[in-house]
Amino acid sequence: KGAPPPAPAASAQNLAHPPEVVLTDFQTRDGDQYNPVKQQLERYATSRYSCCPQLSSVLLCPDRGTGELPVEPLGVPPPCTIRPASPAPRSPKQPVRGYRRGAVGGTFDRLHSAHKVLLSVACVLAQEQLVVGVADKDLLKSKVLPELLQPYADRVEHLSEFLVDVKPSLTFDIVPLLDPYGPAGSDPLLQFLVVSEETYRGGMAVNRLRLEHGLEELALYQIELLKDPSHQENEEDKVSSSSLRQRMLGTLLRPPNKRPELPAGLYVLGLTGISGSGKSSIAGRLRSLGAFVIDGDQLGHRAYAPGGPAYQPVVEAFGTDILHKDGLINRKVLGSRVFGNKKQLKVLTDIMWPVMATLAREEMDQAVAQGKTVCVIDAAMLLQAGWQDMVHEVWTVVIPETEAVRRIVERDGLSEAAAYSRLQSQMSGQQLVDQSHVVLSTLWAPHVTQQQVERAWDLLQKRLPETLRARD
């Protein structure tokens, strides 16, 4: 500040995002758009970094005298404040000191403006090294819609690109954060920690742990939360990754499958989810919007009913003692035979799943005969049975496991242990989402679920083949 830029480096450095504008707080009373300082700044920047053509430079305060402070227009405060939370806050006119090494942590899912403020402040404070903890594994379980979190490797990649662009001179050590303390709780070389209003107490806990282990406290710098003016009623009022994940519900996450072997004029969705997820309620909402719904449970009942295509094979495989006196298959007895016995379960599914798939295809023909354009197969075992091969899109309904257990206990009268055991025998929500095109959730109020389904349906109509849209 107050001096010309230093001499250019020997070679230009490539950044993930080539700079388009270069800013400086170099002070001059010369307001000329093309003054020598700006020209020299542009030459310096292009010699150091691979910049966009026609790079422009901006003097932030060309007419301000030395020592004067900028005035916020209309009394509006800046979007964030760098203030030390410990020790006592100093006057805003005092310069923020620098430290050799510091730390910052977070989930950093879908890097957004609030993340960038937090990270930029950390880069300002650090002079040599910045340790960045990225939440993983157990720390992700309590997140809203954890199934939609970006994989750890993707989050690290985007984080690394941003940090290098912000301050290429720093050494960045990006590590998995597996507990609330991370390296900040044990690294004796760290000197500061950047926190938000929400994580300030966590920063204090880190310092208590350091004192217990004979380490010096970290200087805590607290960043104010950024308000999100476009948040919805079920979203946080701050800029957050949770809200971004909620906005993904009902949207297309990957291209649909091409299924030329399916009935012409019919678009097929496979609807699945863990037990208690509210999958059937979603199916009902889709039916009310015009979809033809195939109930997977009803397919099973038809398959092993007396005279059904799976009845005799099941009786031959498991014996006549699974029958009621009237000849119906006793589902409880059959279930006790296969529950916890993978070999016996495979025997049953090898019989049932192909038969049920055939019945499902017959119902698809009925949907076409009724003039329907969208058919939904509502089946908990959709992916396990390999039925993703006969749908254009897989739609999955997700809820937290704890909520699923609560619903199962309330609905089926099971103990919590039995409910957990049932869930453990199924594919997890994450495994289902990893193979899904659209994700929905019944976690919030019913009208929020309805809004999700209507949004998903409207978006589906826009991507239906043109021939199907014409029929509608």
From TrEMBL:
It is an enzyme of class 2 (transferase). GO terms for cellular component: mitochondrial matrix; mitochondrial outer membrane. It catalyses: (R)-4'-phosphopantetheine + ATP + H(+) = 3'-dephospho-CoA + diphosphate; 3'-dephospho-CoA + ATP = ADP + CoA + H(+). GO terms for biological process: coenzyme A biosynthetic process. The keyword ATP-binding applies. Residues 1-20, 72-97 are annotated as: Disordered. Residues 104-247 form the Cytidyltransferase-like domain. Pathway: Cofactor biosynthesis; coenzyme A biosynthesis; CoA from (R)-pantothenate: step 5/5; Cofactor biosynthesis; coenzyme A biosynthesis; CoA from (R)-pantothenate: step 4/5. It comes from the Eukaryota. It is found in: Cytoplasm; Mitochondrion matrix. Keywords: ATP-binding, Coenzyme A biosynthesis, Cytoplasm, Kinase, Mitochondrion, Multifunctional enzyme, Nucleotide-binding, Nucleotidyltransferase, Phosphoprotein, Transferase. InterPro entries: Cyt_trans-like (IPR004821), Depp_CoAkinase (IPR001977), P-loop_NTPase (IPR027417), Rossmann-like_a/b/a_fold (IPR014729). Its EC number is 2.7.1.24, 2.7.7.3. Monomer. NCBIfam families: dephospho-CoA kinase. In the central section; belongs to the eukaryotic CoaD family. This is Bifunctional coenzyme A synthase.
